[in-house]
Amino acid sequence: MILAVLFANSEGNILIERSVSIVYTMIGDVCLYMVGKDEYDELALSEVIFAVTSAVKDVCGKPPSERLFLDKYGRICLCLDEIVWKGLLENTEKDRVRRLIRLKPPVEP
Questions:
Q1: What is the pLDDT at residue 101?
Q2: What are the pLDDT digits (tens) for 22-33?
Q3: Which residue of 11, 25, 41, 109 sits 20 to 30 Å from the alpha carbon of 52, by its own alpha carbon?
Q4: pTM higher than 0.85 for the full model?
Q5: Looking at residue 71, what is its pLDDT?
Q6: If DSSP states are collapsed to H, E and C, what string results for the chain?
Q7: According to the lineage, what is the superkingdom (predicted)?
Q8: Cα 105–chain centre separation
């Protein structure tokens, strides 16, 4: 039996199931999920989802459609890489993430 509590806030929804927290939101046509355990509770995940939604809106220029999200997928992945590195929260400041993705060198095929 799964017991869960669902909360609504301005940025997204929070689902708590035993020791795992899930924060999710819709941004345009795209649904984003953040899942955490232990020190990454619903408060930390709310901070992460705020940084991710800000980065996605910044890259796309507006809430993305599915097509726009796929067109900007490379830059979005660079942003996500700067926000979360190897499963750990790294940067949540929008301006810092924007500066760091400009410093990435071009990838050789």
A1: 81
A2: 888 888 888 888
A3: 109
A4: no
A5: 92
A6: CCCCEEEECCCCEEEEECCEEEEEEEECCEEEEEEEECCCCHHHHHHHHHHHHHHHHHHHCCCCCHHHHHHCHHHHHHHHHHHEECCEECCCCHHHHHHHHHCCCCCCC
A7: Eukaryota
A8: 23
> What is the distance between the alpha carbons of residues 21 and 28, in angstroms, rounded to a whole number?
23
The residue among 6, 1, 4, 82 whose CA lies nearest residue 48 is 82
CATH topology of domain 5-102: Beta-Lactamase (3.30.450)
d(CA 79, CA 3): 34
Give the residue carrying structure tokens 């955490």.
Answer: 36
Q: What is the pLDDT of residues 31-40, one digit of tens each?
A: 888 888 888 8
Distance CA 31, CA 3 (A): 23
- C-alpha R_g of the chain: 15
Rounded to an integer, what distance in angstroms lies between the CA atom of residue 90 and that of residue 75?
Answer: 17
Which residue's structure tokens are 């999920």?
A: 33
